[in-house]
Amino acid sequence: MSKRKPATRSVALSATRRRAELEAVSGVERKKPVPPAALPEKGRAGRKGVVIYLDLPAKSQLADLAHEHRKSLQDLGIEAFNHLFRAYGHKPIA
To answer: Residue 54 has what pLDDT?
Structure first.
């Protein structure tokens, strides 16, 4: 009695291969969705870091605000800089 060997191909690879074969036979290619240009990208790509130093009570209050409003410090910082730009008569671009 011989034991069967486990399948060496993964399911994802098999599905990918089948999709590629179907595209080759049908002549129709799947188009990747294009992200909307109006939404800013998340992450650091194309951005520059800005460092500010705060006293401990101000840092704690900022962290409390972020937690209370369920926002990241990054989101609060962008909101604050846009508010500052508007206050000085500039376009909010952060």
So the answer is: 94
76 close to 65: Cβ distance less than 8 angstroms: yes
Sequence-ordered strand ranges (E) for 1-94: none
Residues 62 and 76: beta-carbon distance below 8 Å: yes
Contacts 24+ apart (CB under 8 A), 14-22: none
Asked whether residue 56 is domain-assigned, the answer is: yes
Q: Is 81 among the domain residues?
A: yes
What is the total count of domains within the chain?
1
Query: In this structure, is residue 24 part of a structural domain?
Result: no
Please give the model's pTM, rounded to 2 decimal places: 0.53
Q: By the 8 A CB rule, do 72 and 66 touch?
A: yes
Q: What phi and psi, each to the nearest 5 degrees, are found at residue 51?
A: -115, 130
What is the average pLDDT value for the chain, to the nearest integer?
Answer: 82
pLDDT at res. 45: 85
